[in-house]
Design a protein that fits this description.
CATH class of the largest domain: Alpha Beta
CATH topology of the largest domain: Nitrilase/N-carbamoyl-D-aminoacid amidohydrolase
Structural class: alpha+beta
Strand content: 25-35%
CATH architecture of the largest domain: 4-Layer Sandwich
Number of strands: 21
Number of helices: 8
Shape: elongated
Radius of gyration: 24 Å
Low-confidence stretches: none
Order of helices and strands: EHEHEEEEEHEHEEEEEEEEEEHEEHEHH
Distance between the termini: 14 Å
Helix content: 10-25%
Largest sheet: 6 strands, mixed
Strand order of the largest sheet: 5-4-3-2-1-14
């Protein structure tokens, strides 16, 4: 599992600004080939005292939360982010897990800090699934107790995420005061994290709020601690991100083999199909293709898919132009491994009646797109960098058959 750990400056009540920072970091996670981006406690809302500012809390179905879920779909990267959650008349300190445009789970802090009197405690262990990998969540002051960590590991977590927002007493006024506050968090927060990693024999990944807010400062830290106590971390207290890898395989077995055909006409346009995910009302444009049936090789499956989706089997396919592997949720966790092949063809139209018949396969539309049109329309494609791939192909620079085409 490849994780982007984010030390984020989360303005109190600045939900729009915080959301924008999350979106930037999700794109960074995509570019870094990460499976997940992990954000600090209260990362979306900023730290909230619900007795003074209940309006700064959010419900799970609030628009900023939905927009963040949608960003996980567009980036192809899971997100674990923090918020002050309002549920009916109660408030919780929650880490929210989203993937593929949807809510996967919520962990509500079960051991509160000394100044968190306005919150209730949760009652469910923080163990979640990303593909075949399990991970746990512990929040800030829970480093002082063992039970959230013990229950996460007992639940099969291969890594525990420690998400924090430890406010520093007194404002930071110069570099020395920042360094002193950061040193305290290294000995306290990171020290406790090392203790848990060693005693449980699992890696722990940290993400801490960073920098100044309207009335409080935070000693930013992103770090990975191994079971042996080795530490990789950002160099200081400032906002930043760290790519960490842990020994937890996301891919779900058995892997579904698949094939896709990128059909490109003389004007450099690609024929794409629009798939609609009825669960979340979102769509994605992809080249024709699909999974191999038992006993099929990739070319046999390709010819069958072209007959089924385009109602023709006379297209000349070749050469192979890369591979793509992704893990996603479709009623269950799945991992699909695709081979991609290029097909040069004169432009053609598919019978609208045939397209209408494909709605049962969640295909709702087909059309030819240039790379410029994809970008102008803000098209959501798979892979995400399909416009750049099309530019490369039309320039005559074909990818290697084993090239990774990305998420």
């Amino acid at each position: 599992m490849r994780i982007l750990l984010v030390a984020l400056n989360a303005g109190k009540g600045d939900i729009d600004g915080n959301l924008a920072r999350h979106l930037v970091m999700l794109e960074e996670a995509r570019l870094q080939g990460c499976d997940m981006a992990v954000f600090p406690e209260f990362s979306l809302t900023g730290s909230v005292d619900p007795r003074r500012h209940p309006e700064r809390s959010l419900t799970i179905d609030a628009e900023p939360v939905r927009r963040l879920f949608e960003a996980t779909r567009r980036a192809g990267v899971a997100a674990v982010f923090g918020m002050a959650e309002r549920a009916d008349d109660a408030f919780y300190i929650s880490q929210v897990y989203g993937h593929s445009g949807r809510l996967v789970g919520v962990y509500r802090k079960r051991h509160l800090g000394e100044d968190e009197f306005g919150y209730r405690t949760g009652d469910v262990a923080g163990v979640f699934q990303l593909g075949a990998a399990r991970f746990g969540v512990a929040i800030c002051a829970e480093s002082e107790v063992d039970f959230p960590w013990d229950e996460a590991v007992a639940g099969g977590a291969a890594v525990v995420l420690h998400c924090s927002a430890p406010g520093l007493y007194g404002r930071r006024t110069d570099e020395e005061s920042w360094r002193n506050g950061y040193s305290w968090w290294l000995s306290n927060g990171l020290g406790q994290t090392v203790r848990h990693a060693r005693r449980l024999g699992v890696p722990v990944a940290m993400a801490t709020q960073a920098g100044s807010t309207e009335d409080e400062d935070f000693p930013g830290l992103a770090a990975l601690v191994t079971p042996a106590g080795a530490i990789a971390r950002l160099p200081d207290w400032r906002a930043g991100s760290l790519v960490a890898e842990v020994a937890a395989d996301v891919a779900v077995q058995p892997i579904r083999e698949a094939v896709r055909c990128l059909i490109v006409d003389r004007d450099g346009r690609a024929l794409l199909l629009r798939y609609v995910d009825s669960r979340i009302g979102a769509s994605c444009w992809v080249p024709p293709g699909g999974g191999l049936n038992p006993g099929e090789d990739h070319l046999t499956a390709l010819r069958r898919e072209l007959r089924e989706e385009l109602a023709r089997d006379d297209l000349l396919a070749g050469p192979w132009i890369g591979r793509r592997c992704h893990t996603f949720w479709q009623e269950r966790w799945m991992t699909q491994r695709e081979r991609w092949v290029l097909c040069a063809a004169d432009p053609f139209e598919v019978d609208p009646l045939h397209i209408a018949s494909l709605v049962v396969e969640d295909i709702h539309e087909m059309r030819w797109w240039s790379a410029a049109e994809m970008r102008s329309a803000g098209l959501f494609t798979a892979p995400r960098n399909l416009p750049s791939l099309l530019d490369r192909i039309t320039a005559g620079n074909l990818p290697d058959p084993d090239a990774d085409l990305g998420i």
